[in-house]
Amino acid sequence: MMTKKTIKIVLTCLGLVLLLGIFARADIKKDVRVELDSRVIKDLSPRGLTLTFYLKIINSSRKDYYLAGYTYRFVVEQVEYLKLSTQLDDFIAVPKQQEIFIAWPVKITYAHLFTTVPSVESQLKSVCYLSGELWLADRKGRIKGKIPVAFSGEFPIFKKPKAQISRLKVNQISIGGADIDFRVKFINDNGFELLVDRIKYQIKIGGHKIGEGEISGDKNLPPQGEKEFHLPLLISFFEVGREIAGYFQQTEVTCQFSGEVELRTVWGRMTLPYNLESRIPVEKIP
Q: Where are the domains of the chain?
């Protein structure tokens, strides 16, 4: 049977063990610190993007540590978008008195984002906040402490450029063919310039192809601006069919514009398909 003195000694020892554990865990925050090196946006598209936080982990102690796992919470406009906890199968060494760099990518899908945070869909960009903990272990895999991290950032809300058929004018028509002024407009609602490398197109009137090719010249779209492209068409009725002439005698006609646009931003390249169909007036020279 334990005496009061023995119980007191045991409790004192337990208390010392707990204190030593607390101090051991607290020491790791002095041994290791984490800094944000940079933020990089990649793979921007109408579907979303990847925002990567590059972190520098600095071990100033004389002990080797190992990154064993992490938890993080990603918040957009004060709303939680993602929460994750991961234990690494292969630990990442953080050698004594050295520093390492790690990438912490966050995949942002616009469909999920607009459902979770509807207000951002109409914005040009959104602010975000990443917070969490890095779990550091010793060589045997025992967790020695957790380092808190918290970083802010922002990312663009990409909007696919809109396109619309703006004009179909008959400059001249004869038995053999027609001289047509066709115009299409592209509208950039983004807060940044779109560098357009190529626009391929095909034009149909009433389901009949009357032209195809590539738009030449400067095709870049200014931020929150628009650009109209003039596509002169010389149509031979012997090649496309005499029935096409009848469409140009109407007051309005169904017109189709299809193709694809290859463009660049500072965050990546993309190819966007287009397939427009609308009833537009047929303008004629008096």
A: 29-156, 162-284
